[in-house]
Amino acid sequence: MKIKDKLSVQFTLIFAVLLLAVLSSIYYLTESNREQNFYTRLKERAVTAGQIYLAKDNMDSAGFKDVQNKYLHSLPGEDLKIYNNKTVSVFVNLAGEDFPKETIQETRKKKEVFFYDKGRQVAGIYYTDNSGNYTVFVAAKDIYEFRHMHQLLLIMVLLYFISVIIVFFLGQWFSKNALSPINRITGEVKFIQATSLDKRLHTGNGKDEIAELSVTINHLLEH
After folding, report:
1. What mean pLDDT do residues 108-125 have?
2. How far is CA 168 from CA 36, 171, 172, 181, 182, in A?
3. Which residue from 72, 83, 106, 138 could staple onto 45, CB 3.0 to 4.6 Å apart?
4. What is the pTM of this model?
């Protein structure tokens, strides 16, 4: 492989690795932010659910109506489960398995937990009420943001390959220009014959490495 091609490949590989690291970091940070924001929404839903189903007696009609309006639109695939202090389900809006007792106990201990369950994000809180203390879980899928993240991933992959291809050809052009003085020297040396040893190589600006190489070859010819 010629030096020109080696330089082009090496330059492209360095760029590809750096670009991959940058794009991966952007995607990771964006996904982390999406995940955290959705957990916040789930926590708010859990608090609102507790107010609706457990604290209705402690609120005036206007306050309760406001809470109901907050909970009016459910999230995609939303599932609500409420457990009392005896770990007995007191409300389930969708059929399904109960959460493990260990998870419920952990929620009581930590006051709030966040985790994934069967592809859904789950927020659990320990809700205190004068009628008793309850553990509330809200699970849902962030479908719309997942679509946005999928589109972002496709765009990043497409831009990554397009950028790498462009950089490869730019590297070819750059390495060709960078090595053109070497090609010039090679051509001049080939032109010098035994009958024309009086000829000398062009030294250019006399300051860079190419000029030093030309001067060295000229000294050799003089000897």
Report:
1. 92
2. 38, 5, 6, 21, 21
3. 138
4. 0.72
